[in-house]
Predict the structure.
Amino acid sequence: MSDEGRAVVAAVKAVAERLEAERSHLTELDSAIGDADHGGNMARGWSAAAEEVAELDDPDPATVVKTTGKTLMSEVGGASGPLYGGSLVFASAELEDGVTAESAVAFAETYLEKVQDRGDATVGDKTMVDALVPAVHTFKKSVETDDLSPVEALAKAVAAAERGVDFTVPIRASKGRASYLGWRSVGHQDPGATSTLYIMEELLSVAQEELEVAEEPTVDAASPTVPDGEEATED
Amino acid sequence: MVGLVVVSHSRKAAEGIAEVATEMGGDTRIEPVGGDGQGGIGTVPDDIVDALDAAEEGDGVVVLVDLGSAVMNADVAIEMSDADAVVADAPVLEGAVNAAVAATSPKATLDSVREQAEAARDVDKL
């Protein structure tokens, strides 16, 4: 349990570092079609979350995720607070019995459901949902139908999210601040979809590192085979 | 009495709107809230929770909001707060004025105040 918790803390730290590195890029994207605060909001929120979770005493994964979400909710003064933070808090309940292939799928689905419910957006609205939906669906299918390991499934999901981000470029925004621009939002990549991809990329890289470090598979009833040597599947 | 909360991305805008609505609102409790908590433009749920708690006098609270993330953060705050609160799907200033007037009625309920706020959507100016 504590190993899993530590891995999730490492993931939050990795996300915070990545978003800090991408701060100006995200701000640039958000300047084109939004209110130019996404880079700052995300970097600030996740860095506060990384500090909060580092303070936790031997936490379980659900507690780390919940703490991250709560911190985002109070630190991010924009839509990303309720969307990222609120959805993490809500979905963290799925990880209460630890991180398994099965609970990770449930977490991803619940997270997506909450984002869509809160933001009232569907695929094609030019939002983070355009990256999330293909990612979550791909993750679920990879685990449940294709019998891939969770890390292989996550790699597939990241590739799907990347295509989702590309998909946001040519479409017109119909949700969020970008929708005020109408046709002028066409041709710009959505900042929320982009930050969603960055978060997933960091989760993948931490998951790969953690499993390479862990010689022995974590106790995991849902996925009997844990590959010992990760081969990231490249399309 | 039914209380009101006005949520805007700008704290100043929320205060100004509450000021306008107060002229028509008699003793109605109208709480303005807004800003990102760090002096910038935005909304945060924790501040909205405080406003909801301050506006709740036993008959519920109608929440007026400006833009997208204010709606989301108001929803989050309502989930966090013990106040019996609903968001009105209404223009923020006109809705606040309508709601303030509706709240002064002795028969005012949470639903009647919200309905009056939402009626402001159909008011033509010209």
Q: What stands out?
A: The radius of gyration of chain B is 13 Å. The interface with chain A takes residues 35-38, 40-46, 67-69, 72-73, 75-76 of chain B (CB under 8 Å). Helices of chain B lie at 11-24, 45-55, 68-80, 92-103, 110-119. The longest strand of chain B covers residues 3-8.
